[in-house]
Amino acid sequence: MTPPVKPLPPAPSRVFRTTLALGLALTAAACAGGPRADLKPGQVPAADSTEAGLWLVMDKAETRLKTSGRVIPDPELQAYVQDIVCRLAAEHCTHIRSYVVRRPGFNASMAPNGFMSVWSGLLLRCENEDQLATVIGHEISHYVRRHSVQRWEAMRDSLTAAQVFGIVTATAGVPLGGFAVLGAYGQVQAYSRDHEREADAMGFTLMSDNGYAPEAAPQLWENLIAEKDAAEEDKPDPFFASHPPSEERMQTLSELAAASDRHGTVDNSRFEALMARHRATWLEDELDLGHYAEMQVVLDRLKDSGTSPGVTWYYLGEVLRRDAEVEDKEEAVAALRRALTYDDVPAEAHRSLGLLLHRQGDHADARDAFENYLAVAPGADDRAMIEFYIKKLETKS
Amino acid sequence: MIRFSKLCTGLLALALLAGCTTITEVPPTKKHEIGGVFRVVPGTAWNAKTTNRGEIWTVNGFGLERMAFITKVEDGKPLVTQGQDKDAPTFRADMNATDVVNLYEALLTSSGYSQIEVSNLRPHTISGQDAFRFDYTAFNRSGLAKQGMVVGLIDPEKGLNLATYEAASEHYYDASLAAAESVLASLEKI
Ligand SMILES: [Zn+2]
User: Fold this and answer.
1) Could you tell me which of A153, A191, A192 has the C-alpha nearest to residue A30?
2) CA of B76: which chain A residue's CA is closest?
3) Domain A272-396 classified CATH 1.25.40.10?
4) Using one digit for the tens of pLDDT, what is the confidence trace for B137-156?
5) Smallest Cβ distance to A69: which of B99, B121, B139?
6) Which structural domains are found in chain B, ordered by start?
């Protein structure tokens, strides 16, 4: 179903774009605002336009991201996401460049020049390729509908070029500071919500027309709502702030899915193989965020799916072990013991169990757990510390 | 005052809110007390700034390399008290070295760091008292590769105390590594 990948056409745009002074381009009051025609495949903005200036800014941001070390160095994973882009974007495919960046939390972004980024935390939250395609379809729609330039035109009058640079790059997930622009950024949120609705609808068409299951779209939102509800209080999340309420999006997508006559199904084996490869690392990153309640929702879903059970139960144990608000650690102990019954359990489960039992005063079992850790991971780089714990426990028991 | 103005430029990003306040040069050869917990021999002419939890030192600018001393973190208190996520995890008196590693990872994450890899957690001693050390690499908020090392001491009276060195992996980390190692080697508990 993937269209043949055409070679990139020669890009005259690069030549003129580099000759453009950044500031000049951004402050040029060129085109009139308002809706624009969709971007044609391979179309580049006119040299002296505002849009060309935005592209130039995002070319720079893209270069920064590429050299930042944040792009996950797994060519198969990167190619996989780009393949979904191509399946959905058809002849726009070669003009969109996707990057999977290692970062916890649910987010993806699309810049006007076709620079798309997907956070690892978003992949972690997708249950299948259909849900991932929902997000990618949404982002492609922003690109084709040229939402960035329209949004920029709506706010440019009140901002300096430097402020705009901050906003545009922040939108693309490349924050460069810019506290000062947040207020002005907020003012365009209402405007951008219409774009989000439009991108949801068009993204839904792209995914359901290309063989993906329509019901995956509302399901993704249902999952996110469950996570949001689990958080004790609403935290200002950059994703939720710039988007319509999740409930509304889920509702709209449910209606679209119910009315759709498409019944796509895809083979999820490639999706699952790649997720299994990275899941533990991404969960580890998520743990450091300290949003334990949300994380538990993600883990409960993984638990129900039965994929990576050792990894899932280990991180369930870790969430309960680290969360200071969970006073009774019996459940954490139970989750870790359960994790240890599966083949894919990380060696660290033994260590965490040892730490918990140590704290509970169960010195003999704690020592066994630490010794198991060193037996399973003889090359562990914290070996000296664990041996120190064992020695201390010996003097106690 | 060339050093001062150079430092201010390096600090520009941080200075947006704080401004260039009192930065003083630490006398290199004199024993220096920090937070009522640590006594160190600076060795090099570090520039120091006091914080509400101790001191931070640099040679070329806080964004390039820094030593940070975080002292007397009490039970139930976060590592850093300013400008952090309000649900930043807190230190608990029953924590051990491995728990403090997790706490430190959470601190880096809440400061916008990503891809944090901790290594070589190992026992250490300060003035004959059990302590620990570990190393790490990460990328900061703007994608710059950073490298660091941490020495920690949990004390029944003085809570959690950390002495850290962190710098840009490229050039700066190695450039001041010997100076930082010498400071950490000189650490005494008051
Ligand atoms: Zn969007």
Assistant:
1) A153
2) A324
3) yes
4) 999 887 889 999 999 999 99
5) B139
6) 22-189 (3.40.1000.10)
